[in-house]
Structure formats: structure tokens, C-alpha cells
Write a structure and sequence with these properties.
Blueprint: H1 2-5, E1 10-15, E2 26-34, E3 41-42, H2 47-51, E4 57-61, H3 66-69, E5 86-89, E6 91-98, E7 104-108, H4 112-120, H5 141-156, E8 162-171, H6 178-188, E9 193-199, E10 202-208, E11 211-216, E12 219-223, E13 225-230, H7 235-247, H8 249-267, E14 276-285, E15 289-299, H9 306-313, E16 321-322, H10 324-334, E17 345-349, E18 355-358, E19 363-367, E20 372-381, H11 387-402
Antiparallel strand pairs: 1-2, 1-9, 2-6, 3-5, 4-5, 4-17, 6-7, 8-16, 8-20, 9-10, 10-19, 11-12, 11-18, 12-15, 13-15, 14-15, 17-18, 19-20
Helix pairs in contact: 5-11
Length: 406
């Protein structure tokens, strides 16, 4: 499907990588091209009109959409990747394989038989020849550690009680084949909310383990991740690390803070009394790390729309901290680059109004025109954070991306 779709100027591919997790509908899902119908592209402020056309809608929302949702906020750092704040489109073709992997479905404005033949006959993308690249950062280790110290003082002063703090890595004058890079990333770090996104000359290659927001019928849910531990090749040591994460007081404290924030966010668009925690401190294992994941659900009010759900919950609490408004101010002050699509979301809205969107983390971003390749990684800072350990966690996540180019 991807080998066929790479010819499209816009495409979004969502891959579960065969994780059999609850609340999932598709093994993979692809949107390619823009439908040749009037008004088939829109920004977030026009999403309800796009939905009213009754078709599939795919797209993204950048983290910096926060400045639209809360006009007193700003993003003071320059743009590098060039993704617009939001972009949604009705695809020319949608292909998907259901969770049971029993069939390939094709919905298209073209001839589906022709599309099927083209897909099955597409030449496989060559994943060899990925260049060796060096990455630099706008923030040194010393600056990173110093900022964590200052953020801990903000917490001690009562300005906030948890903040997500990130660093960047970038390579200039980089020439890559984005699909080959995605294939390599997806092989090394298969994740349940992986995505490959092309918007003209801008690309995202994403190995996200985290869901932002899903609606299934009247139920809406969010699954924030807070709590990370490395994997070990020794099964006994790996099991011990996993159990240590499960019982780590600091990690549990970080997780429950975000759970409370998400509960409050969902309560604004859900029926009174319907918001609850389906799973608290669930431990899920991925190729490089173990993660602590909680699941919060609620019954969405009948008069609430997708736009309302975004307005009340975006940006996701796991990528900000709490309280949201204050920590977003601090993020802009202490981080040294604009987040753009990082900490944002990509996903789909089905014709019946159900939707599913991920958290854009563990991702590479490429502007082919500028030959600029970048990523951002980080973690949650609390008063009990150890700056050196936070640096090591950030670098662990960064290495999972950089090692593709070694």
C-alpha cells in the first residue's frame, strides 16, 4: 500500500504493527491523494464543514495550535519543518486492513479494481542506502541540566507540579528517502500508533506508542503515557526492570498527575459522572522501552463535536504537564526550538464521526526543500526528578531515532 501511495503529494499511513491492544479497529489504514470535490481540504477552524460532507477525513494538528486555542500563548522560536498549524483532507483513496487482518478494503473515487492491481503490482521501496548522518542540538547537556534545575524551582515555588521538557536533534543538508527511513524506523521500533505522513515536501516518520484521543460510538478515551524504563536483552533483568517501573513511586506520581489532568479535560466534553479510569499504571513493553500507560474513558455529550473534543483536551496533558496554561508558558521559555508537529497529532475521522488520533512522539521530521531532518525527545519533570537520569532518558529516546543513520 505504501509503495503504491508514495507517488501521492499527500498521504497518511497509520500502522498498528500487529499490536493486539484494546480499542483498536484497524491493522493499518492509508489515505492517499485529495478527493477531487469542492472544499476537500480545511484547517482545524473549518473541520466541521469538512466533516459535514460525510466522508473520511485525515490530517494533523501541530502543538502550536495551542496559540489559537489560547490566544495569550505564543511560540517564540522559529519554524524549521514548515508543517501548517493544522491540515485536514478528504482522501481520493482510503485503504485499510481490519484488526483481524482478514481482508484489504479499498474505498476510492477511482476504480477500486484498478487501485488493487496497482497496489499488488507496486515496486517495493529499497530500504538500503540510508545515509550516515550526524545530529546536533540547540541545547547542550549543561543547558539541559541547568533548565531542569530551574524547572524544579518553579515546581517548588508552586508555579506547576509537572512539566514535559524536551530537547531537539537536527541534521542540516540531509538528503534522505523518507519512506526508506520510515521502513527502517518501523522495523527497529514497531509501535502501535506508528504513522508515515507526507504533505507536499514535508514528511513525518513516526513510531509513536501513545494514543491521544479516540471516539467509538458515544465513548471517548485517552491513553496518556508517563513512566519509561529501558529494556534489557537478558529476560531476567528485563523482567526486573519492568517490575521496578510498575512500583516506582516517582513514575506512578507522574502518571497519576496526568491521569487527573486528562480526567478533568474529558469531563468538559463528557456526560456528568461518566468519566472514569479504565486502567491505571498499565505496563506495556516496546522494543526499546517499557512504558506506564493509563486509560481514561467517558461518554461524550450528544451535542459535542470533534472540534469540541480537541478544544477541551489539546495539547495532550502527557506532552505538557500541569497546570496546562502555566507549563506551556514555561515550555516556550526553557525549550530552545519550536515543537511544530512534535507533540501534536495525526489521525482520522471516519464517515460515522468516530475518530482516532495518536500523540506525535518518537518521530523524525523532514523538510525536503530545506534538506532539514529533525526530532525532539524529552520527559516529565517533577520536583523529585534527577537531572542526570532525565538526560539519560531523553538520550535513550533520541538514540532510538539516531541509530538509523549510524
Amino acid at each position: 500500500m505504501l509503495d503504491w501511495a508514495k507517488q501521492s503529494g499527500i498521504l497518511l499511513f497509520l500502522d498498528s504493527n500487529n499490536y493486539q491492544l484494546p480499542h483498536s479497529s484497524y491493522a493499518c489504514l492509508l489515505a492517499a491523494g485529495v478527493a477531487d470535490v469542492p472544499g476537500s481540504v480545511a484547517a482545524m477552524n473549518d473541520i466541521e464543514r469538512l466533516q459535514s460532507l460525510g466522508d473520511w477525513v485525515f490530517g494533523h494538528i501541530c502543538y502550536d495550535q495551542k496559540n489559537v486555542l489560547e490566544p495569550r500563548l505564543v511560540s517564540s522560536h522559529p519554524e524549521n519543518t514548515g508543517f501548517p498549524l493544522s491540515h485536514f483532507f478528504i482522501p481520493q483513496t482510503v485503504c485499510y486492513i481490519n484488526r483481524e487482518q482478514s481482508a484489504l478494503a479499498i474505498e476510492t473515487f477511482d476504480d477500486p479494481d484498478v487501485i488493487y492491481r496497482e497496489i499488488t503490482g507496486a515496486a517495493t521501496e529499497d530500504s538500503t542506502g540510508i545515509p550516515q548522518l550526524q545530529f546536533r542540538s540547540t541545547t547542550s547537556k549543561e543547558q539541559y541540566l541547568d533548565s531542569i534545575g530551574k524547572l524544579r524551582r518553579h515546581i517548588a515555588d508552586g508555579d506547576c507540579y509537572e512539566i514535559n521538557y524536551c530537547n531537539d536533534g537536527f541534521s542540516e543538508d540531509a538528503t534522505i528517502e523518507p519512506l526508506a527511513v520510515f521502513n527502517a524506523l518501523n522495523k527497529l521500533s514497531p509501535a502501535p500508533y506508528a504513522a508515515y505522513y507526507r504533505l507536499d515536501n514535508k514528511y513525518m516518520m513516526c513510531a509513536s506508542p501513545e494514543r491521544y484521543l479516540r471516539k467509538d460510538g458515544s465513548q471517548i478515551l485517552s491513553q496518556p503515557i508517563k513512566g519509561t524504563a529501558r529494556r534489557d536483552t537478558d529476560p531476567v533483568k528485563d523482567a526486573a526492570i519492568k517490575e521496578q517501573l510498575r512500583n516506582d513511586i516517582k513514575e506512578r506520581a507522574e502518571n497519576v498527575m496526568i491521569v487527573d489532568l486528562v480526567r478533568n479535560d474529558l469531563a468538559r466534553c463528557c456526560e456528568t459522572g461518566s468519566v472514569g479510569v479504565e486502567e491505571l499504571f498499565g505496563i506495556y513493553s516496546f522494543p526499546q522501552v517499557h512504558q506506564m500507560v493509563s486509560t481514561i474513558t467517558g461518554t461524550m455529550k450528544e451535542d459535542m463535536t470533534f472540534a469540541d473534543a480537541i478544544r477541551y483536551t489539546f495539547p495532550m496533558g502527557s506532552m505538557t504537564g500541569a497546570p496546562k496554561y502555566k507549563v506551556m508558558q514555561l515550555i516556550d521559555k526553557y525549550e530552545h526550538c519550536r515543537r511544530e508537529l512534535f507533540s501534536g497529532t495525526v489521525g482520522y475521522i471516519a464517515p460515522n464521526g468516530d475518530f482516532d488520533f495518536n500523540v506525535v512522539i518518537r518521530s523524525l521530521f523532514y523538510n525536503a526543500g530545506a534538506k532539514y531532518l529533525s526530532y525532539q525527545t524529552g520527559g516529565a519533570i517533577t520536583y523529585d526528578s534527577d537531572a542526570e537520569k532525565e538526560w539519560e532518558e531523553m538520550r535513550l529516546k533520541a538514540w532510538a531515532l539516531e541509530r538509523i543513520f549510524v
